[in-house]
Design brief:
Layout lengths: L1 H10 L14 H13 L4 E2 L6 H10 L6 E2 L1 E2 L3 E2 L5
Parallel strand pairs: 1-2
Antiparallel strand pairs: 3-4
């Protein structure tokens, strides 16, 4: 999935960057979002099979300057589009 996302982004003229978190606290996710926002990321896509991490993403995405597009397992983000 990650490779397909990278190829699709590149074909559309975008660059990708990846971060793998070893901790999933609100602070860790917010820090990763801040990192990508500081790089002027137009969007952040979160891929996670863990409902608990998806819930953390939902709780901090409002603090992110970049647009958070979706989380997995295949649940579209709602409320900030």
């Amino acid at each position: 999935m990650l490779i397909a996302l990278e190829i699709t982004a590149r074909e559309a003229g975008f660059f990708t960057s990846v971060v793998a978190l070893d901790r999933f606290s609100v602070e860790d996710v917010a820090s990763a979002f801040d990192h990508f926002s500081s790089l002027a990321a137009e969007a952040i896509i979160v891929i996670t099979p863990m409902d608990s991490l998806a819930e953390v993403v939902v709780s901090v995405r409002g603090m992110c300057r970049s647009r958070v597009l979706m989380t997995c397992p295949w649940r579209p983000m709602r409320g900030r589009d």
